[in-house]
Amino acid sequence: MRNHYIYCPRCGHHPLTDGIPIGDTHARQYCSQCHYVVYDNPRVIAGAIIEREGQILLCQRGIPPGVGRWTLPAGFMERGESVEEAAAREVMEETGMQVEIRSPYSIFSVPPTNEIYLIYCAAPIAWDNPPGPESLRVAWFCIEEIPWEEIFYPAIAQILQRYFDEGLTGRHGVYSGSMETGLIHFVS
Ligand code: ZN
After folding, report:
1. How far apart are CA 170 and CA 183, in angstroms?
2. pLDDT score at 154
């Protein structure tokens, strides 16, 4: 869904113009008074696969959408963060666990929702805090226990399946792709 502004966020002029700003390539909202351009670029979701002795940590969603369904700890990056910081923060917020971000694992574009998932492999350091309100429960799952029908996002189910297919060897490839282009695997 595209952000739509009524007033110019910079000068308050109304209405904004819809069209291709001079020198630009894409149609956007822009201000005819102060020339502010509303860019509505994809948003980055950072998260982590945390493994411990063949088990993966999953969160049961406590907030819409998908309350009661399971996913990896992940969420939108905030301004001023690195993507690794965002992944570690989201893990802390949703699970209470402090992790070390180790290596990138999946770069997954979802053009229909204007989102990019950056999922890292991470290792537990300490688990001293309870899960935040975004999670109903947090639990470890081995592959036989993964509630596949209750994984919320198809992209997350694919990531989990790949991770287990690689055999929990501690050596994982890096994947880049999307629903449209399929998956590209870069062997580490
Ligand atoms: Zn303006």
Report:
1. 21
2. 81
Centre of ligand 1 from the C-alpha of residue 22, in Å: 15
CB–CB of 164/145 below 8 Å?
Answer: no
**How many angstroms separate the alpha carbon of residue 28 from the centre of ligand 1?**
14
Between the CA of 35 and the centroid of ligand 1 the distance, in Å, is 6
Distance 20 CA to ligand 1 centre (A): 16
Distance 2 CA to ligand 1 centre (A): 19
* Domains of the chain, start order: 1-40 (2.20.70.10), 43-179 (3.90.79.10)
Going from the Cα of 83 to the center of ligand 1, the distance in angstroms, rounded, reads 31
Sequence-distant (6+) residues with CB within 8 A of 74 are 45, 46, 47, 48, 87, 90, 94, 117, 119, 156
Distance in Å, CA 27 to ligand 1 centroid: 17
Question: Pick from 149, 158, 146, 152: which is nearest to 183 by CA?
Answer: 158
Mention every residue, 6+ apart, whose C-beta is less than 8 A from residue 121.
48, 49, 51, 101, 102, 103, 104, 105, 172
| Residues 33-59: tens digit of each pLDDT | 999 999 989 999 999 999 998 899 999
